[in-house]
Amino acid sequence: MVDQDDRLTRVFGALADPTRRDMVARLAAGDATVSELAAPYDVSLQAVSKHLKVLEEAGLVRRSRDAQRRPVHLDAEVFDLMTKWIERYRQQAEERYRRLDQVLARMQGKDSPTDEQRHEGAAG
Amino acid sequence: MVDQDDRLTRVFGALADPTRRDMVARLAAGDATVSELAAPYDVSLQAVSKHLKVLEEAGLVRRSRDAQRRPVHLDAEVFDLMTKWIERYRQQAEERYRRLDQVLARMQGKDSPTDEQRHEGAAG
DNA sequence: GTCTTGATCAACCATGTGGTTGAGTAGACA
DNA sequence: TGTCTACTCAACCACATGGTTGATCAAGAC
């Protein structure tokens, strides 16, 4: 579990950079070499290589060999880890919100909240 | 669009920290004050306040007032932005993968790839 | 062998980040 | 009025990050 937490830190951290997000977007359309990936950006090849290392350590990308080229491949599986984390808390928050709405609706029907109604928010 | 890119950078960046992810997880269960949020961690209140500022600027959290308390509320809407971004490229990558599988399956059936088969990977 | 290409490693630099402590602010309360 | 509580702001520090340049490596091309 701690291991997964570290993984989440790396993945979110990797995608916190717009250049790296852009690279992921391009790799979703197909594999590419480092030079190909570097072409659109106004930074050195070394900088791009560093970005790829971050993506690789986050498990978002794999690098193989083809002569002196190193084709980069998007490994979309890690996305699952993120969406699961996000969905979990979103659903939790939304359900809580829904329950609050119900309580508020009842409060409008009557006049002031009773003890019974206030307890509903803490149930479940 | 650039605005949204900046927003994504903030959200991913905010969630790249395990303490902040933990705070989000706890806020999903219900609103809390700064002191309440700080309690489980072995850091100063000021550090927690800084974390909350990051979460707020990412749009993940809203802070209101209740006397000298500042209740923190999770704003789960921003999660949508992330999941949309993630899903878009995951689906793209998975579809590409599926198509590649089809090509490989046919290659196993025959002997070597024909020009027709190689073009299938670029279609769509 | 030597050159060229594609990419990485290493050292360095400026800036950002997460933490600290100390001072200051806003509101409840005696 | 002064004091306590809850919190923020400001200054500082150590370390991480994104960028640079120069050297190096690995594998074709000549």
UniProtKB/TrEMBL annotation, chains A, B:
Residues 108-124 have a biased composition (Basic and acidic residues). It holds the Pfam family HTH_20. It comes from the Bacteria. Gene3D superfamilies: Winged helix-like DNA-binding domain superfamily/Winged helix DNA-binding domain (1.10.10.10). Coiled coil: none annotated. Residues 105-124 are annotated as: Disordered. This is Winged helix-turn-helix transcriptional regulator.
